Amino acid sequence: MWPALPDALLLLGAAFGAGALNAVAGGGSFLTLPALVWTGVPPVVANATGTVALLPGYVASVWGQRQDMQAPPGLSLWAVAWLSLLGGALGAALLLLTPNATFSRIVPWLLLLATALFAFGPRLRQWISGMAGATGQAPRWRVGVGLLAVGVYGGYFNGGLGILLLAFWSLCGATSLHQMNALKNGVSALLAAIAVVVYAAGGVVQWPQALLMMLAATAGGYAGARLARRIPAQWLRAGIVLTGLVMAALFFARA
């Protein structure tokens, strides 16, 4: 069933903003999840539908950085792909098993975690990069287990996933930011794709809302890429952190 006009306008605006945020610095899920919940979509379904809506943006990012895609230290690209798909599928299946009431109680904490990851992301990456440089490349099995764990998180709730992945690649010994960004986008796309398959099979995607938001998120991603160079980075980061805190506070109030 297609949403009523006021709800449709809210979803279009949230998806446009989310696409722009993801193109510039990340944090799009801070807008899509609350918008869907406030239009009456159950929390688990809202999380799934928002992931579907943002999938085209992830795919476009992978295509844009395909030349920088290189295997991280300790793993082949095939291993990265399979571990990402497995972790994403497990996380998505876990979401399907989570009752809406339980997820409603978890969401504010997940939003706070995602906001903290975004706020302290640069320092976290610097700290992990220094630790990786001091200890050398992580053992292959630890890299694999770590990527699987990150994949489960991304399949369950992808807020803050980009920062988590960048920090993880630093810990693995990667040093090129272009390589790390390309890998981040590749893993994000795979996680979103497999999660969408699981969500669709579980019947927890509201397709009318998802299709509306896909179009708006794609347009927002294009606009965000065009505007990215005109807005000071510190303003963007502060705005996204503030958005995350406000959304978490509103969800705490609803709990």
TrEMBL record:
Q: What is the lineage of its organism?
A: Bacteria, Pseudomonadati, Pseudomonadota, Betaproteobacteria, Burkholderiales
Ranges that cross the membrane: 44-63, 75-97, 103-122, 143-169, 189-215, 235-253
**In its keyword annotation, does this UniProt entry include Transmembrane?**
yes
Location of this chain's protein in the cell? Cell membrane
Gene Ontology cellular-component terms listed: plasma membrane
Keywords for the protein's UniProt record, in alphabetical order: Cell membrane, Membrane, Transmembrane, Transmembrane helix, Transport
Q: Topology with regard to the membrane?
A: Multi-pass membrane protein
Instruction: Give the domain of life.
Output: Bacteria
Organism for this UniProt entry: Giesbergeria anulus
Q: Would you identify the family this protein belongs to, as annotated? A: Belongs to the 4-toluene sulfonate uptake permease (TSUP) (TC 2.A.102) family.
Q: What is this protein called?
A: Probable membrane transporter protein
Q: Which Pfam families match?
A: TauE (PF01925)
Answer yes or no on keyword Transit peptide.
Answer: no
